[in-house]
Amino acid sequence: MPLYEHVFLARQDLGAQQVEELTAQYKGIIEQMGGSITKTEAWGVKSLSYRLRKNRKAHFTLLNVDAPAAALMEVERQQRLSEDVLRYLTVRVDEHEAGPSAMMRKSDRDDRRGERGDRFDRGDRFGDRGDRDRGERRERRDRDDRPPRDAADEATATEG
User: Which CATH number is correct for 3-95, 3.90.1170.50, 3.30.70.60, 2.40.160.40, 3.10.20.30?
Assistant: First the structure.
């Protein structure tokens, strides 16, 4: 059977329990039509790039599906009818990704970064500025390496 990755966005005002119920409902449809779900990931509530049906945030859920195309078409039909689902996307893949998805790995990385406390380290945001040593600049300014002025230059400087 073909392999799919299916992501759907549920309204922000739904509770986590209601999103799990939606996921279980879609899982039931797929299993009823001879397919299986190999992995389910709830990515949590995330901000949207733009408003969708007056929502600025949504619950994101990923389903790795091994099912016939007809099963996914039925799930998508159900999601179009549901007012709780804002958007969905199904992509056919050659193989499912082993381990957590990229979205889950990103949140793990952010958690580790926050633990180390270097998230707001100035060096991380602006890069290494070791090539700019302000001490040398001050030394050059303090030294009087300028050539002496001519008498004509001094005369014009004092007149102006």
Answer: 3.30.70.60
